[in-house]
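Protocol step 4 of 6: record predicted structures for both targets in the notebook before any analysis. Target 1:
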Amino acid sequence: MITILFTTIFCLSLAAGWALAFYNGSDLLGYAMSIIIGGFAGSSIIALVFSWLYFFQKETDSEKIQRLREEINRIKGVKKLK
């Protein structure tokens, strides 16, 4: 699901760069620069969306307890190896 969202954002940003160059009547270099800038803008938007989803996700209590148990077991396992 998230892959489809990120792919859609990136493709739309590339298309927006191409459309901007097309409507401005740019030459080949203008097309390339517009598409590159559109790709960079799309990547930046994806990074912002990913950060927002990561930092503002809501965990249920059972998910949090399970995650903490797994982390404690992982730490215990590392201590046993030493």
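Target 2:
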Amino acid sequence: MLLKLIFNPFEKIAGYTALVVGLAIILLTSFLAALNGIHFDGVLSVQLGAYTGFHVPFAESLINYTFLCLTGYIVCRIFSKSNFRIIDLSGTIAFSRYPLLIATAMGFIPGIDRQNPYNMINFLVGFAVIFCVVWSQILLYNSLHISANLKGNKKWIAYIILITFTAVISSLFYNKIYLLIL
């Protein structure tokens, strides 16, 4: 039961509640990222980088969330036979980002050495961050079932298209946007 709640909380939280809680988590994650010099320069990316001020992590999170919602809406409209509410989709997408809050908080762990990538603490934290990114993707995948009633192969295909398209587009977009926001 606990594992199901951790990896598919959308049977308990969806709609407006998921949207409000998810957006609050995204804002808190962005705030912590600004304090830690963490960047989200792509929907699958959490990186330790330069301290750039508060506007950059907030912009990165907003861009990632927007791309996921827009692409998710289009993909779910194509693959879902049922009517679904945009509030459910955008809420579950926002809430699926909560493992990134945990990943970002790991930037406060003492002993992280920005100068030495071979530090054992860096290695362990990096491994935990990768787990959080994968966990976030599991949540995103499960959100497609709950919010758009996608099942089976359609859910897999929709997820692959969603994540591939948003990863490519966000990477191309970030190459241009950093010239404006840095």
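Step 5 preliminary note on target 2. The radius of gyration is 16 Å. The chain has one domain: 6-181.
Proceed to step 6 after PI sign-off.
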